[in-house]
Structure formats: C-alpha cells, structure tokens
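Before a computer can learn anything about folding, someone has to put a protein's shape into writing. The outcome of that step, for a single protein, is printed below:
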Amino acid sequence: MPKLTKDADGVHVIAPTPFDEKGALDLTSTARMVERYLEAGATGLTILGIMGEAPKLTGAEARLFVKEVLVRVDSRVLVTVGVSAPGFAAMSDLTKAVMDMGASGVMIAPASGLRTDDQIVGYFDDAVEAIGADVPFVLQDYPQTTTVVMSPKVIARIIEANPSCVMLKHEDWPGLCVTRRSRASGSACANMC
C-alpha cells in the first residue's frame, strides 16, 4: 500500500463503520461500502475517525475492520486510519497494527482537555513519538467534539515540529479561513481538507 504524502490528492471519503442490528461489526456491509466508494472513483478512504465511531469498538474489532477494508481496497487507494485514543500506548499499538497491515497513514485528533498552545503542540510531539516519526499522519482538527481549539499558528507549529504530519483535516467553522491562514503561513503541510 502506498504511503500517505503531502502530495495526496483526489477524493478521500470519510467512511462510517457499518454495524448490524445487534451492534456488532457488519463486515458484509463493509465490503459493499468499500466497493461502492471505489466504483464511484474515491482515491482514498479514511476509516475509524469520529464519524467511524471508533470509540465504540474494541481493539480487536478495530483491527478486524481495518483488515477487512484493506483486503477490499487491495492497494487501489490510500487508506488512512484514525488512531486517536485516550492514551499513547493504545495509539501506538493500533498504529503499529494498521501500518503492518498496509495502511497508508493514520489520523490523530487532540485529546480533550488540552487548552494552551504549548499543551496542544506538546501533545502532538508525544503522539509522534508514540507512533513513530516515520508514520505519516493527518492532523484532525474537530473542536466541536474534542473541545480543543487550534489556531492556525498552533497548527503551523505542530506541522513544523513534526514533518510526518502530511495533511490537515479541518472541521471547524469557518474552515476556509483557518485553511487559508495555515497555507499562508508557509507550513510544510500543503494538503488540507
């Protein structure tokens, strides 16, 4: 599977995690979902993010879901896996597992409770240490859920300190304003969702 880089382009679908009526993973629906995204021309899939309901899964379920998606895409598109977790040990374990399976990169949101710029930047320094500086990652900025507000200045600091940050997934309002300011800062992270 190719690695996620700052040159990635196209449409990277934010995929849900299908469940059956009893709340278990629905791998049959997962297979259909992946095939439909590929048939529609997706160039990448992002799984186990906030919309992917990752916190509802056990570690074993998360790995099983990732494995099913990766088998279905068969290296045809990039697959980015959300690995945000309450602790760095869980983040590290899931990252190692999904990268060993063939994921293209991972996505990390800040932990709730971070308030100062230095806390936020320090968190991502620690996250990169936990996952490995060779693992490409997407910086997920979703303050409506995380309650962590990252200014363009903080985003630029994170990207400058961590070259493995190859993309920003910005989900706050007004999104274009933050994206424009981040790009204007000259940060190395050229691709921003």
